[in-house]
Design brief:
- The chain is an alpha/beta fold.
- It folds into 2 domains: 5-210, P-loop containing nucleotide triphosphate hydrolases (Rossmann fold, 3-Layer(aba) Sandwich), CATH 3.40.50.300; 221-387, 3-Layer(aba) Sandwich (Rossmann fold), CATH 3.40.50.
- It has 16 helices and 14 strands.
- The chain has helices at 12-21, 28-38, 53-68, 86-99, 116-123, 134-142, 159-164, 168-177, 193-202, 233-241, 261-273, 287-298, 332-339, 360-369, 383-387, 436-439, and strands at 43-46, 77-82, 107-110, 127-132, 153-156, 183-188, 207-210, 221-227, 254-257, 279-281, 304-307, 322-325, 349-355, 375-376.
- The strands form 2 sheets. It has a 7-stranded parallel sheet, sandwiched between helices. A 7-stranded parallel sheet has the order 10-11-9-12-13-8-14, sandwiched between helices.
- Helix 2 (28-38) runs parallel beside helix 3, helix 3 (53-68) crosses helix 4 and helix 8 (168-177) packs parallel to helix 9.
- The protein is globular.
- Residues 396-402, 415-425 and 428-454 have low confidence and may be disordered.
- Belongs to the DEAD box helicase family.
Length: 454
């Protein structure tokens, strides 16, 4: 018998919000997590990104907040959700607004890269649900603009990613600032030693929900591999995107991952030179730039997005047809999160990896720690010719413009550049021809600098 949301004990306002979103059947993690969360239990969820974790903790938490009906605390919140990236925080906050639309929940989000003063103002009166990145949250706490005294429910989403981004000290500090009498919901895709330590600090006898084994790749993703030299990757990428190579799938929305910020910008620049529109998203981009790039990607206005791992988690963009690992990640688990951007919401997806000679160890680690199964693809038939500059997809060399030496202003040789009106004496008559006055058609002889105009 198929479980439906109405079987999980959710209240009528939440069920109506789900109907408005078109949701009928819960995902496995939602079916297993919602009942214990409704009971007020702490929970440890082990699941890949894209499995529906946000609804798994947000739906029952909204119900519990609504039933408790406590006042919104001054300069605090009733439910705090910590997320590793700005983009994920924004998506969680939007989901909270959608799910809590009929329950009267006041929802805010705060992230780095935005105005601190605006954050101070909007949090002054407190809120029901706050979604935050750890760094900006602690900034406001240090400024006495916010506190965690009113937290009833604490959620850590993508906890292992927060560790990867260096938030371990921030998380330890936050654990000391929240009330002991609270409910904690802890979600992570992997369980390294530091995560187990954090679970011990945050959770009290949690219910463990594990939907898929840690570090496994989605079954609906076809994975392909190109062995290619590092300095030839850009050419291969351009040939693939220009459909000069029979790569599986139709390129509708393509997410390309690099290891560095400068690498992402370099790929975008070279694609643009080839007439292929693309945007970049990484930590050096301002928040408005990141929001604009994601919006254009979602609307397929610019269907190619080049990103660092800041976009590997929680970016729920429907319709990503291909994920291309331009550079393999040096952390095997990160590969799982990267390719998890495709094959979402029951769709199929394609993942393509470029592997250079110096990345073979990364490839071995990915194969060892995940269930990745690659089909190796040959390089295009004319690839070598294109790389060497004689192929049809290589841009023609730019012709240098021949610089033309400007002609002198006057016909007379040796004419001075400045006129007498700028403090320079005219050339005396008899040296090199007629005076200026004669050449312009004026009558009479030239006058010296001592002569008057009248």
């Amino acid at each position: 018998m198929t479980i439906q949301f109405k079987d999980l004990g959710l209240s009528q306002p939440v069920m109506q919000a789900l109907d408005m979103q078109g949701y009928k059947e819960p995902t496995p993690i939602q079916a297993q997590a919602i009942p214990p969360v409704l009971e007020g239990r702490d929970l440890l969820g082990i699941a890949q990104t894209g499995t529906g974790k946000t609804a798994a903790f947000m739906l029952p938490s909204i119900d519990n907040l609504r039933k408790a009906d406590n006042q919104i605390p001054f300069k605090s919140c009733r439910m705090l959700v910590l997320a590793p990236t700005r983009e994920l925080a924004g998506q969680i906050a939007q989901s909270a607004k959608d799910y809590g639309a009929l329950a009267g929940m006041k929802v805010h989000s705060i992230v780095g890269g935005t105005s601190v003063n605006k954050d101070r103002n909007k949090l002054h009166r407190g809120c029901d649900i706050l979604v935050a990145t750890p760094g900006r949250l602690l900034d406001l706490i240090d400024q006495k603009a916010f506190n965690l005294s009113g937290v009833e429910v604490l959620v850590l989403d993508e906890a292992d990613q927060m560790l990867d981004l260096g938030f371990i000290h921030a998380l330890r500090r936050i654990s000391q600032l929240v009330p002991q009498d609270r409910q904690t919901l802890f979600f992570s895709a992997t369980m390294p030693g530091q995560i187990k330590e954090l679970v011990g600090k945050y959770c009290n006898n949690p219910v463990t929900v594990s939907v898929t084994p840690a570090a496994t790749t989605a079954e609906r993703i076809d994975q392909y591999l190109f062995m290619v030299q590092q300095d030839e990757k850009q050419t291969l990428l351009e040939m693939i995107l220009l459909e000069k190579h029979p790569t599986p799938g139709d390129f509708e929305r393509v997410l390309i991952f690099t290891r560095t910020k400068h690498g992402a910008d370099r790929v975008v620049k070279k694609l643009s030179q080839r007439g292929i529109p693309a945007n970049a998203i990484h930590g050096n981009k301002s928040q408005p730039q990141r929001v604009r790039a994601l919006d254009e990607f979602k609307r397929a206005k610019t269907p190619i997005l080049v990103a660092t791992d800041v976009a590997a988690r929680g970016i729920d963009i429907p319709g990503v047809s291909h994920v291309i690992n331009y550079e393999l990640p040096n952390v095997p688990e990160q590969y799982v999160h990267r390719i998890g951007r495709t094959a979402r919401a029951g769709a199929d997806g394609v993942a393509i990896a470029f592997c250079a000679e110096d990345e073979r160890q990364y490839l071995k680690d990915i194969n060892k720690q995940t269930d990745a199964s690659f089909e190796r693809l040959p390089l295009p038939d004319n690839f070598r010719a294109v790389v060497e500059g004689v192929g049809p997809t290589k841009p023609a060399p730019k012709q240098q413009r021949q610089r033309v030496k400007p002609k002198p202003r006057g016909d007379a040789p040796g004419k001075p550049k400045h006129s007498a009106r700028k403090g320079k004496p005219n050339r005396p008559q008899g040296q090199g021809g007629q005076s200026n006055r004669r050449r312009r058609g004026g009558g009479g002889g030239g006058r010296g600098p001592a002569q008057s105009r009248g």
